[in-house]
Specification:
The chain has a single domain, classed as Alanine racemase (TIM Barrel, Alpha-Beta Barrel). The model has no long low-confidence stretch (mean pLDDT 94). It is 44% helix and 16% strand. The protein is α/β, with parallel strands linked by helices. The chain has an 8-stranded parallel sheet with strand order 7-6-5-4-3-2-1-8. The structure holds pyridoxal-5'-phosphate. Pyridoxal-5'-phosphate binds next to strand 8 and helix 9.
Length: 243
């Protein structure tokens, strides 16, 4: 595999320009959405979802001022985090998580967005204590009835939040969701905002609301998202697109 240092200079420059343009567009959308919602730009953190893209893109993003990176597959994420160990980054694990991957994910992730069952809380906590790490955890909420996409049922969210608040080695950050397919995202994000408020009432420091991706980040910011997870709009389409 080519390393960034070996990459032809003009390739790097071209890719940097591409990413800079994507970042400028995304920044503009976040700023506009904040303005419309009467919120400060500083209330929203941009997480660049770098899945399928190389570590060299992570470096370019960091050069352009992005500090938060998101990944959804352990194997890929572990390799990329190792390649970028010299960079001051916050790694967010946003994918569905099997308990047998927890040991690895805990070794590099700073925040896990996809905590949706008690067994996962136990596994993350146990591993974090063993590795002497402190992992931020978000309760992932299912905003529809599709179990394939992960997430706890809304009724189970308070209980999971309580478990995370008490477990050693982890801290409760707040909630996360993916907008349901084939449904308007606004009402779904409004439900998430209400759940987030209920969690915050019991756990005032759990202020994170992770919602919004390339297509619906404005809607998410309008409904109180504090973190948006953006891949395509920053880095391009992940799969070849045939017209
Ligand atoms: C891939 C992914 C994203 C980013 O999606 P884009 O549409 O490419 O912006 C956000 N959140 C999760 C959980 C993802 O898996």
């Amino acid at each position: 595999m080519r390393q960034v240092g070996e990459m032809a200079g003009s390739d790097t420059t071209r890719r940097r320009d591409e990413i800079a343009a994507g970042l400028a567009r995304v920044e503009r959308r976040i700023t506009d959405a904040c303005e419309r919602a009467g919120r400060e730009r500083g209330e929203v953190t941009l997480i660049a979802v770098t899945k399928t893209y190389p570590a060299s893109d992570v470096r370019l993003l960091r050069d352009l001022g992005v500090r938060d990176m998101g990944e959804n597959r352990d194997q890929e994420a572990a390799a990329k985090a190792a390649e970028c160990q010299d960079l001051p980054l916050t790694w967010h694990f946003v994918g569905q998580l099997q308990t047998n991957k927890v040991r690895s994910v805990v070794s590099y992730a700073d925040v896990i967005h996809s905590v949706d069952r008690p067994r996962l809380v136990e596994a993350i906590s146990r591993e974090a204590v063993k590795q002497e790490r402190r992992i931020g955890c978000l309760v992932q909420v299912a905003l529809d009835d599709d179990p394939a996409r992960g997430g706890a049922r809304p009724a189970d969210v308070p209980g999971l939040a309580d478990l995370l608040e008490q477990a050693p080695g982890v801290w409760l950050g707040g909630v996360m969701a993916v907008a349901p397919l084939g449904e308007e995202s606004g009402p779904a994000f409004a439900r998430l905002r209400d759940l987030a408020a209920a969690v915050r009432e019991r756990h005032p420091r759990a202020t994170t609301v992770s919602a919004g991706m390339s297509d619906d980040l404005g809607e998410a910011v309008a409904h109180g998202a504090t973190h948006v997870r953006v891949g395509t709009a920053l880095l391009g389409r992940r799969k070849p697109f045939v017209r």
